[in-house]
Amino acid sequence: MFKNLLLVLAILFPSALYLYIVSRDDNKAPVAEQTQVPATSEAEYQTPDH
Q1: Cα 21 to chain centroid, rounded
Q2: C-alpha distances in angstroms, 17 versus 3, 21, 26, 30?
Q3: pTM metric for this prediction
Q4: What does the pLDDT read at residue 3?
Q5: CA-to-CA distance for 20 and 25, rounded, in angstroms?
Q6: Which of 1, 14, 16, 32 sits at 20 to 30 Å (Cα–Cα) from 45?
């Protein structure tokens, strides 16, 4: 019984670890997008050099 439980945990652990890493990276993505938005909006209103 203990071996079966250990086998199930060994099989599911990589998937759980992958999902944890992916969900943690998604939380950082909106912050990076928010920092890029003001830079592009400022570029739209700059006067062109002639």
Answers
A1: 8
A2: 21, 6, 14, 22
A3: 0.43
A4: 95
A5: 9
A6: 32
Burial 15-49 (b: 16+ CB within 10 A, else e): eeeeeeeeeeeeeeeeeeeeeeeeeeeeeeeeeee
State both tokens at 18: 């992958």
Instruction: Give the Cα separation of 38 and 41 in Å (integer).
Output: 5
Instruction: Give per-residue pLDDT as tens, 17-43.
Output: 999 999 987 555 555 455 555 555 555
Rounded CA separation 19/25 (Å): 10
d(CA 3, CA 9): 10
